[in-house]
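Anyone able to model this chain together with iron/sulfur cluster?
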Amino acid sequence: MDNARDIAVNCRQYAMCKIDFLGSGVCASGLERHYVTFYPQGRMLLYAALADGKIPVTEKCVQAADSCNLCGKCDYQCYFVTEMRPTKVMRALKTLVGKHVAAGNPILKEKETFLLREMQEIVGPNWATGDRGVAVTYSTDPCPMAKPQMPDYVVMPKTREEIACLITLFNGNGIPG
Ligand code: SF4
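re: yes, here you go
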């Protein structure tokens, strides 16, 4: 399979690229940023969404594209399981976003909302976002019964206390658990 979009849409989303099962290492940007958007798995969805025009280029799209250093670790892992080479997609993502930025085209900034501010107050500014580039990487999973659905926000609490505060926030704002 050579075409970047074909590879991207054929990712099974099993998240094996988050585990060092070959001893060849794990994507450094994923380990640092934690959002799936910064792992090969998420960048597959991100590239497909951008190539299909489903989302605009956002600040986090640019960060995700820039944070891949084309080290090739994901090729070892993904080829072992699926015989696909994600770096073709990673390179295509960098090219697509790079051309957009170089042409001076708009880069969508995250919309500030009350709920986002409150979530960031609880988990810290880096761990809650409504950026569409992140949201699209949380919009689907491998279950054939699950329909793709874009979340409004992605939030990553670290402690039980943060989870409890988030649930209180959501309950107070009519967001079902
Ligand atoms: S090539 Fe990019 S996506 Fe793949 S492991 Fe290296 S940094 Fe991560």
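The mean pLDDT is 94.
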